[in-house]
Every structure is written in C-alpha cells, then in structure tokens.
Amino acid sequence: MSQTQIDLSLRDLRQRELVPPEKLAASHGLVIGVGAIGRQVCLQLAATGMPEMTLVDHDIVDVVNLAPQGFMPQDLGHAKVEATAAWCRLLNPELQVHVHAERFRRSSTRTLGCFDQTDRQLAIFCCVDSIETRRLIWEAVRQRACAFFDGRMSAEVVRILSSEKPAADQGYAQTLFAPEQAFAGSCTAKSTIYTASIAAGLMICQFTRSLRGLPLDRDILLNLLASELIVS
User: Fold this and answer.
1) pLDDT at 184
2) DSSP notation for 19-55
3) Is 147 exposed, middle or buried (0-12, 13-18, 19+ CB in 10 A)?
4) Options 3.40.50.720, 1.10.3720.10, 3.40.50.300, 2.40.50.140; which CATH number does 18-231 get?
5) pLDDT digits (tens, 9 = 90+) for 174-199
C-alpha cells in the first residue's frame, strides 16, 4: 500500500483517549538540547503528533553519539538539530519543525519565533547537561511557558522534574544547586540509549498528563540498576 492510499488522519486513533487531540493541536514543543534525552523527546513528540516543534542545540553529531543518542552513521558531521528534525519529519510529515543550531541564550526568548505565538501553548523540554544552563533557561522562559519539563541523566539514573505553572513555581529553583555541587560528569560520561529513551518517555508522559488536566509528578527519580523509583 502506498502512502497516498493511507488515511493519515487515523495515525493517532489508539491514543486519543490518552492524548487529547484538540489540546495537542494547540501545543508547541520547544526542545532545548538535542543529545541523548532531547533527541528521544523530539522523536516521541513527533510520533505522538505534536504539530509544531522548535529544536535548539549548537552541537554536531560525533561518532560517540551513535550508540547512546541514537543517531545514524549518515548523520555524522551534521548539526544535531538538523539530523533530528529530518527523522522527525519522516515520523510525521505534517510536523512543522524549526531548527536553531546554536546555544540557548537569554536573548533567545526574543529571537525564537515560538515565544511570539499566541495560538499555541508552549511546552518546554529542557534536556541540557549543565546546572548553570538549566538555571539560565529557567530564568529566561518561566514567565513564557505553559509547562516545563527537565530531564537529567547519569549512567542508569534519571531524574524528571515537571512544572505545570512555571511562572508561579517556587520549588523547581531549589533543584538548581550550585555548579560545584553537581556531579562531575562530562560529554564522556556513561550513557545509554535505553536510559535516555525511558527518561524521554517519562517527560512525554508528564506532558500528556498536563494536556488532560491531571496533576503532574513534580519529581521522579528512577535508578534502573537498583530498580528503585521515587516519586514526589
């Protein structure tokens, strides 16, 4: 069967009771950081049917990104946002995706078009690997976001933080400890695609809960190695 013979309007049929189509259609996903977690967030959002996305990341695909981040050999040397956007379009040809191969800055709220939209609800997915960068992003976007999700990963431990009312949230800032207190990881830290995929799935789950008007799990800590889950 050719693609022209397939009724793509039925692509979300089995999820409609879980992901309200009208709420999803009014959403715009901003993904900041398109590495291990961020790339999986983008792919899952695209498959879910997010109508419009903006991807921000300055990095390019290196060979060490292939296994833990799920990039393809043909993506090597390309900007991560460009490579990820291409795969997102394959998953959902109707998706509008905007790419910015640059670092997120405070001024990005003035230069990224998603902050000027009035017809869509902006959901922000923070998938960076620096506490300092998280603080910058939070301070820059909290007044403009309708929902905020932060994914953190170290080896086989993930932490997902969610905020359904960022402008009034006083708790998230408490997780932005001083940089010297952070785990001394780096781009060579241990990482796996399955851990990143689980982290992304937990973030998308919280996003869809927000679409349904359900309370969010503000802080999820999952240790895969120890099979421990803590939710608060």
Assistant:
1) 44
2) S-HHHHHTEEEEEE--SHHHHHHHHHHHHHT-SEEEE
3) buried
4) 3.40.50.720
5) 999 765 554 444 444 688 999 999 99
